[in-house]
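step=encode ok
step=design start
structure_in=
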């Protein structure tokens, strides 16, 4: 399993390139392909657990924050932020969301249960 998916269907106009342009484009493509394994390798189990816990928390219910303050002119400021995850809307179990997320990122079962802040 990898952290990112990459696909290329090809460009039919690529065959029309010739000479220096084609050589440079091929060299660039080879350099990019050589760098991809480092950028898209498997995610560590601990990193996957942290990333997937955030998604599982979003599946557990709406999250948000409230802020109130006063600026230097004496005006009262308020801020409200509410996030509702698509997994929550679909009614998915947060523990299942966590487990499937970790398996997708690492190719193996989670190393620990999720900390959902409950």
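sequence_out=
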């Amino acid at each position: 399993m990898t952290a990112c998916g990459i696909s290329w269907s090809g460009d039919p106009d690529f065959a029309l390139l010739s000479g220096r342009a084609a050589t440079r484009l091929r060299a660039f493509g080879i350099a990019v392909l050589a760098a991809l394994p480092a950028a898209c390798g498997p995610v560590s189990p601990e990193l996957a657990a942290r990333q997937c816990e955030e998604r599982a928390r979003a599946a557990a219910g709406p999250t948000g924050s409230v802020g109130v303050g006063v600026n230097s002119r004496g005006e009262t400021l308020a801020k409200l932020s509410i996030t509702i995850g698509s997994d929550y809307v679909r009614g998915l179990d947060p523990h299942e969301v966590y487990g499937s997320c970790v398996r997708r990122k690492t190719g193996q079962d989670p190393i620990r249960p999720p900390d959902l802040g409950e």
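step=design ok
step=annotate ok -> The mean pLDDT is 80.
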